[in-house]
Amino acid sequence: MGKNRLEAFSDGVLAIIITIMVLEMKVPHGDSLDDLRAVVPVFLSYVLSFVYIGIYWNNHHHMLHTVSRVSAGILWANLHLLFWLSLFPFVTGWMGENHFAALPSALYGAVLLLASIAYWLLERAIIADQGTDSLLARAIGRDIKGTLSPVLYAMAIPLAFVASWLAQGIYVVVALMWLVPDRRIERALGREAD
Amino acid sequence: MGKNRLEAFSDGVLAIIITIMVLEMKVPHGDSLDDLRAVVPVFLSYVLSFVYIGIYWNNHHHMLHTVSRVSAGILWANLHLLFWLSLFPFVTGWMGENHFAALPSALYGAVLLLASIAYWLLERAIIADQGTDSLLARAIGRDIKGTLSPVLYAMAIPLAFVASWLAQGIYVVVALMWLVPDRRIERALGREAD
Amino acid sequence: MGKNRLEAFSDGVLAIIITIMVLEMKVPHGDSLDDLRAVVPVFLSYVLSFVYIGIYWNNHHHMLHTVSRVSAGILWANLHLLFWLSLFPFVTGWMGENHFAALPSALYGAVLLLASIAYWLLERAIIADQGTDSLLARAIGRDIKGTLSPVLYAMAIPLAFVASWLAQGIYVVVALMWLVPDRRIERALGREAD
Amino acid sequence: MGKNRLEAFSDGVLAIIITIMVLEMKVPHGDSLDDLRAVVPVFLSYVLSFVYIGIYWNNHHHMLHTVSRVSAGILWANLHLLFWLSLFPFVTGWMGENHFAALPSALYGAVLLLASIAYWLLERAIIADQGTDSLLARAIGRDIKGTLSPVLYAMAIPLAFVASWLAQGIYVVVALMWLVPDRRIERALGREAD
Questions:
Q1: How much is the pLDDT for B139?
Q2: Which of A34, A88, D91, D175 is deepest in the core (most CB within 10 A)?
Q3: D74-85: per-residue pLDDT in tens?
């Protein structure tokens, strides 16, 4: 089975997630600055989630570059990842509407944590299918960012109940950490070509 | 007529269905644990429907692998299947919001039943176009899962009025039964290649 | 400029239109048969619109088969068609929620009329680009269905104010008329191949 | 990294934006002409935004024609553009629902301004990657429309508070200015071919 339809389906789901999140930013009825100000927290949570979905799309894109055939395990690991990402509009809206309160911020972190675990499982499913000597396995090597992120999310969840801005801070820092694209796979592909 | 645009359109519709279902999980206004708990039934029905759409996408993907040209019959049988699947967001939301009450659970089963019949009709339309000696016809053979599923859904509909959890149990069992991917087509393709 | 991205974009928009229409079928709060019955008119209007979007997708698919390059005129004629089709969720929801009342039924017909004119303009744009001796021009010939449909829609609009079911009847009859796929283009392509 | 998935993802996001905007046009509960008249301002803002997204899709399409490989810079510049475009449904709905009041009209202009800057940044990212001697760089030359548009949007924002129709007028004029497709790239591609 080829990977084109898997990529197309994943792209479709990610494109829809990133776009319908904006529907959680309800159009205010009044036209004053105060009406607009009420939307600001939802807007900020939207920006954060937009960046996260962008990062996932980007890394997903890179990771699938190394895949040539899609096994049933890869297919379901991919759907599992999409499931957690599909919860972004809900947790984004909930966190924004409640002005980054403790519980919604913790739940946001929980979805980030589960999505990062799902991403790791997809990575494992690909390597399991292609062998530990595969391009992806060598490209990833010691995956510092991939290991650090879930640890940081797991820390943020309890911290949200101490002070919500601590959790937010961690989410922003991890996003910035990933904004630098993963050049390991590109580099490994480059070495392959030589 | 090629099948690429049929696949792309179906993928698009399935990607949208799987994603907009999450919009039925309304963001609660409060930020307490009780507010979140109120969303749990809709979340559970969302998980079930996500798995079902995933299964349909997966099997649809496999089935179209065997198709080379798209007749008008195949095209409309495919749209007919997409129609019943497009009702998933509605029945999922209704069942979840009413905490798996009898009538919404029965309607959920009815949509599952009609979708499975539509899938079977699409299978027939493809075989009718390609001949009973075709790859798909041989791959399917005696389609135990495909025959058993509608029977189980048809049983679940009246059972929902006896005890709603009986219907839910059947929906979960059928989903688990299908989670094992259909290796018959892959195997038949493998034999073809030899 | 190639036509692939035009097709992909059109498919995307049509897939979204056909799917978000279901969001106008609001999940009822109660779980009784009466609650469900209240949704029936919106469901019926949804079925009608689903079939219409399916027909447009199907015919659009056939028509673009004959196009090799996309001019600016074709591109904007295509967007113009998508614009009128994008109003389907609105008019479908309005007609359904008001139980096929006169004005919503007339507006539904107006959107059908404008979409059919837009389709005809797209056909002209393609023929203008490819010459009246082109495959599409010959395939269409005397376009009976394409000429009859707007006339019938235009009749249905005033008739909706006489008796709403007359307009509905016309919409159903025209849809059935189009459900038979347009074999002219397939036939012309077949002749070309000979 | 190829550009196909970037195009497909962008097309998906633009197709969703252009389609979900219609969801901001809430179906009225009554069936009278007055109920419909209340929707007219949202409809007009929808038409304007539909044309703008169409223009962006068209020009994006042309611009990516000149790209062969996608760098991380291009990828994020593209996501940045999609971010501002994703705010169209919100500002369109807000401006329409408030009958083109001053503040919503100014915010609409601000999103137009930021989107046009993001488009310019994407152009720079592509040229930076391909060299100032590249096809795109030569095709654009002195980019009069691209330079004039942000200036006009920036003028429209304060003017919205003087008289809202002045801002609206500017948005319409700029849209008309862009409706004429950008033939510079096509011409440069033509010269290349010679």
A1: 65
A2: A88
A3: 989 999 999 999
CA angle D64, D65, D71 (to 5 degrees): 45
Q: Is residue B157 within 8 Å of B167, Cβ to Cβ?
A: yes
Judged by CB atoms within 8 Å, which residues 73-102 of C form the interface with B? Answer: none
What is the length of chain B?
Answer: 194
Is the CB of C33 inside 8 Å of chain B's CB atoms? yes
Q: What CA–CA distance (Å, rounded) separates B93 from C28?
A: 9
The single residue listed with the structure tokens 């403790």 is A102
pLDDT digits 0-9 by tens, A130-163? 766 666 666 666 677 788 899 999 999 999 999 9
Residues of D with Cβ-Cβ distance to C80 under 8 angstroms: none
CB count within 10 Å of CB A183 equals 12
Instruction: Look up tokens 């299964």; give the residue.
Output: B55
* Residues of chain B positioned with their CB less than 8 A from the CB of A89: 22-23
Give the residue among A156, A38, A32, A48 at the shortest CA–CA distance from A97. Answer: A38
The answer for residues whose C-beta is within 8 angstroms of residue A24's C-beta and 6 or more apart is A42, A46, A89, A92, A93, A96, A97, B27
Number of H helices, E strands in chain C: 10, 0
Average of per-residue pLDDT across B149-170: 95
Whether A134 contacts A66, CB under 8 Å = yes
- Min Cα distance C134 → chain D (Å) is 24
How is residue C100 written in tokens?
């096929």
Asked if residues D160 and D167 have their Cβ atoms less than 8 Å apart, the reply is yes
Burial of A24 (0-12, 13-18, 19+ CB in 10 A): buried
- For the residues of A2-39, what is the DSSP string, one character each? -SHHHHHHHHHHHHHHHHHGGGGSPPPSS-SHHHHHTT
Angle at CA of residue C8, ends A51 and B57, nearest 5°: 75
User: Which two three-digit tokens encode residue B111?
Assistant: 């949509």
Helix axes D4-20 and D88-97, enclosed angle (nearest 10): 20
Contact B150, B120 (CB under 8 A): yes
For residue D46, the distance in angstroms to the closest alpha carbon of chain A comes to 14
**Closest CB to D8 among C8, C24, C102:** C8
- The pTM assigned to this predicted structure is 0.90
For the record, the structure tokens of C30 come out as 């109660």
Q: For chain C, which chains pass the contact test of at least 3 CB pairs under 8 Å? A: B, D
Look at residue D32 and give its three-state secondary structure: coil
Kindly list the residues from chain B whose CB atom is less than 8 angstroms away from the CB atom of residue A23: 23
| DSSP-derived secondary structure letter, D27 | P
Residue C94 to residue D36: CA distance in whole angstroms: 10
Reported ipTM: 0.88
**Interface check B29 vs A, CB under 8 A:** yes
State both tokens at C66. Answer: 């004959």
Instruction: Please tell me the distance from the alpha carbon of residue C9 to that of residue D84, in angstroms, as a whole number.
Output: 19
pLDDT digits (tens, 9 = 90+) for B75-104: 899 999 999 999 999 999 999 999 999 999
The residue among A89, A88, A86, A81 whose CA lies nearest residue A60 is A81
Q: Where are the beta strands (DSSP E) in A50-162?
A: none
Give the whole-angstrom CA distance, residue C49 versus residue C54.
8
Name chain C contacts of D57, Cβ cutoff 8 Å.
Answer: 9
CB atoms near residue B73 (< 10 Å): 16
Query: In a mutagenesis test of the B interface, which of A11, A46, A90, A100 is the best target, namely the one with the most B β-carbons within 10 Å?
Result: A90
| Nearest CB to D27 within list C1, C5, C24 | C24
Count how many Cα atoms sit within 13 Å of the Cα of residue B22 in the half-sphere of its side chain.
27
D23 residue type, one letter? L
Q: Among A5, C174, D38, D26, which Cα is nearest to B64's?
A: A5
In the numeric block, the tokens 């998980």 are attached to B47
Per-residue pLDDT, D137: 65
Task: Output the six-digit token pair for D24.
Answer: 């901001």
